[in-house]
Design brief:
The protein is of the alpha/beta class and 333 residues long. The chain is built from ten helices and 16 strands. The radius of gyration is 19 Å and the shape is globular. InterPro entries: NAD(P)-bd_dom_sf (IPR036291), ODC_Mu_crystall (IPR003462), ODC_N (IPR023401).
Length: 333
């Protein structure tokens, strides 16, 4: 079967952000869908293409992403294609509108027929946290209780939501530049029954933390302010901000480090971390080609750009759930 049930061939399903948020996807749903697709990369059943972008001098960029593979909620999901178009405009913050805007188109891979168009902003946010969460399931200690969030924007909130489902968290530490955003994350954490603290500087955020998620891009006045040597024994760090806040020259020998996709990384002009520091990627972890955590004392890190395959995994999952629930607007083609 190539198409989802109960969707006429002459229609296109449109899903808004509210539609997607209302589907109730869990962290296990997301990491499971990601794991299936990432695990299919070595056999060629899934294909992830590197990001392509047009950059502008003022910081704007336009990016496209494309992936193929068996994506959906079923045990044997149909094979699909997803394309994502994303625009980034930093000046939008002063305009009071989102700095990132994205749209995803989902195609049936057998026929090439587009079956859905959906909001890409929400999926971009949650698939990024889901990539972190999948890495954490292989690299973090299962008993991790203290989560440090360095940066308190969208990624802090999505990571908190997913990590709180997967680990027995008790305490959340926060470090961020914007007070309103920090208060939002703190409120989310308290609503989950977690204690909230603001230890202060970067060193205090790392000391004793089991899980570290860094999503704050450093300013020119404060470059690479996180030292992997300060990670606690047994800690896991997810470097969401392209590892730009970290002293990546100090990773080798201090924290065994994984990336999301070594093939994608090899094509990038600006390496996330030194090649010698990379132990493997998500596909290696999911397939068991490279071992994850060896013991409770090991320090591990995940530096990543984001995968088109992540957008496909979430888009396929959302599409199937939406069709089953009768959610979304059917548009004539």
């Amino acid at each position: 079967m190539t198409d989802a049930p109960d969707l006429p061939a002459d229609t296109l399903l449109y899903l808004t952000r509210a539609d997607l948020e209302g589907l109730g996807l869990t962290a296990r749903d997301m990491t499971g869908a990601l794991s299936r697709l990432v695990g299919a990369l070595p056999t060629g059943e899934a294909v992830n293409t590197p990001k392509r972008a047009i950059n502008f001098p003022d910081g704007r960029l336009y990016m496209s992403m494309l992936a193929y593979g068996p994506a959906g909620a079923a045990e044997a999901p149909p094979t699909r294609l997803a394309t994502k178009s994303l625009g980034l405009a930093p000046a939008n913050a002063a305009r009071g509108i989102p700095t990132i805007s994205a749209l995803i188109c989902l195609h049936d891979a057998e026929t090439g027929r587009p079956v859905a168009v959906m909001d890409g902003d929400w999926i971009t946010g949650v698939r990024t946290a889901a990539l972190s969460a999948l890495a954490a399931l292989h690299l973090a200690r299962p008993d991790s209780r203290i989560l440090s969030l360095i940066g308190t924007g969208v990624q802090a909130r999505t990571h908190l939501a997913l990590f709180s489902e997967l680990f027995p968290l008790e305490e959340v530490r926060l470090l961020g530049r914007g007070r309103p955003n920090l208060e939002k994350v703190a409120a989310d954490a308290r609503a989950l029954g977690l204690s909230v603290s603001e230890p202060g500087g970067p060193e205090a955020m790392l000391d004793g933390a089991d899980l570290v998620v860094s999503s704050a891009t450093p300013s020119p006045e404060l470059p690479r302010f996180l030292d992997p040597d300060r990670l606690a024994t047994g800690a896991f760090a997810s470097m969401v901000e392209l590892a730009r806040a970290w002293r990546v020259d100090r990773l080798e020998g201090r924290a065994r480090t994984f990336v999301d996709d070594r093939a994608q990384e090899a094509e990038m002009p600006d390496p996330l971390v030194p090649a010698a520091a990379i132990s493997g990627d998500l596909s290696d972890l999911v397939t068991g080609k490279v071992a994850g955590r060896a013991d409770d004392a090991e320090r591990l890190a995940f530096a990543f750009r984001g995968l088109a395959l992540g957008d496909l995994a979430l888009a396929g999952l959302c599409f199937d759930r939406a069709v089953a629930a009768g959610v979304g607007l059917s548009l004539p083609r």
